[in-house]
Amino acid sequence: MNDQENVDKPVTDITTTDRSGTINQAPPRFINITVLFLSISVVARLAFVMGQDISWDLRNYHYYNAYAFLHDRLTLDVAPAMIQSYLNPLLDLLPYLIITHLPPHWLGIIIGGIQGINIWFLFKIAYLVLPKYRDPWRWILSITLAVPGFWGMIAISEIGTTMQDTIISIFILISTISHRRWIPVVATFMIALTIILTLQVPTWG
User: Fold this and answer.
1) In a domain, 88, yes or no
2) Does 185 fall in a domain?
3) Which of 178, 182, 181, 203 has its CA nearest to residue 192?
4) Cα–Cα distance for residue pair 120/150, rounded to 1 Å
5) Reduced to 3 states, what is the DSSP secondary structure of residue 63?
């Protein structure tokens, strides 16, 4: 009889709870801030080590689109970057300003730091879906899942560059964390789709 009761009894002693007995949805403050700091600084450092962006997209339209937007060239120049001349230039503004006002290595450092925020959001998402583990195992597992979650072939190749996939992904991850509040979900998701139209193909397809 006792054995049957032990089998039917739910396992609750490994759940991370607060004083009210409810499951914690956020990691400890110190761990949360530490992961954010390390995510930004490590990826920024990696971008610096990998060197400057010399991609075709930068030379073709990322730099030009921001220049054309700021200097009112859209009605004067006729598709100098082909069809990409008419993509939304908002995400190109920051790289353009960095390139024109700061030493070259700062482009990779700043963009890489922003891209590193993806790891922090992946960490927070992993923490949300692992409520049956007690800290420190819960946040250790979350970090273990977050790092390879960012470490894909495309993400690595775009670290510190003007490619926008790992910038837009931040908005998508924000909408994922806001799953219980539908207005932030819709708002952040639509912002991502509006800024970069090429995202709509994999999203809706």
Assistant:
1) yes
2) no
3) 203
4) 10
5) helix
The answer as to whether 74 is a domain residue is: yes
Q: Which of 173, 162, 164 is nearest to 199 (CA)?
A: 164
- Cβ partners under 8 Å of residue 25, min gap 6: 127, 128
Helices and strands (DSSP H and E) totals, the chain: 11, 0
Closest to 55 measured CA to CA, from 63, 67, 66: 63
- Given a contact cutoff of 8 angstroms between Cβ atoms, the answer to whether 160 and 151 are in contact is no
**Structural domain boundaries, residue 86:** 28-163
Helix (H, G, I), strand (E, B) or coil at 184: helix
DSSP 22: P
Q: How many domains are contained in the chain?
A: 1
> Closest Cα to residue 166, out of 91, 87, 103?
91
Whole-number Å distance between alpha carbons of 31 and 10:
28
pLDDT digits (tens, 9 = 90+) for 70-85: 998 878 888 888 888 8
Question: Exposure string (b/e) for 54-70, b if CB count within 10 Å is 16 or more?
Answer: eeebbeebbbbbbbbbe
Report yes or no: 106 and 158 within 8 Å, Cβ to Cβ: no
73 three-state secondary structure: coil
> For the segment 145-192, what is each residue's pLDDT rounded down to a tens digit?
999 999 888 889 999 999 888 888 888 888 777 656 655 656 665 665
- Determine the Cα–Cα distance for residues 63 and 169; give it in Å rounded to an integer: 21
The model's pTM is: 0.77
- Residue 117 tokens read as 């925020």
